[in-house]
Design goal:
By secondary structure, the chain is mainly β. The protein is 0% helix and 51% strand. The protein is built from no helices and eleven strands. The strands form two sheets. Strands 2, 4, 5, 6, 9, 10 and 11 form a seven-stranded mixed β-sheet that branches. A four-stranded antiparallel β-sheet has the order 1-3-8-7, with no helix packed on it. It starts with a strand and ends with a strand.
Length: 124
């Protein structure tokens, strides 16, 4: 049984930064791909970034490339999303997710395990 817990959300002004964390537990993650998704009110959940837990295969949505960075600490079983140059349109609930497979996917249905989400609000 895999479980994910996000933290680090909050309120920030446009142009500011936040770092989200996703603590994973339950099993070894070497064969997993991980992803960050977000969902704004009235919109569908969308892919933000993802990678293979074993390393590599990093992927970003066009809307965040160059501003957001995904990383992990294998010793802590924790994944991070560093968000810089935040914009009001980045406001959403952010979720981390895991799928059994080495390649990250952009479709949310590809991921079997989800965290509870953390709210990010960017004020203009």
């Amino acid at each position: 049984q895999v479980s994910l817990v996000e933290s680090g959300g909050g309120l920030v002004q446009a142009g500011g930064s936040l770092r989200l964390s996703c603590a994973a537990s339950g099993r070894a993650f070497g064969s997993y791909a991980m992803g960050w998704f977000r969902q704004a009110p009235g919109k569908e959940r969308e892919f933000v970034a993802g990678f293979s837990w074993s390393g590599g295969n990093t992927k970003y949505a066009d809307s965040v490339r160059g501003r957001f960075s995904i990383s992990r600490d294998t010793a802590k079983n924790t994944m991070y999303l560093q968000m810089n140059s935040l914009k009001p349109e980045d406001t959403a609930v952010y979720y981390c997710a895991a799928r059994d497979g080495t390649m990250p996917r952009v479709e949310s249905w590809e991921y079997a395990t989800w965290g509870q989400g953390t709210q990010v609000t960017v004020s203009s």
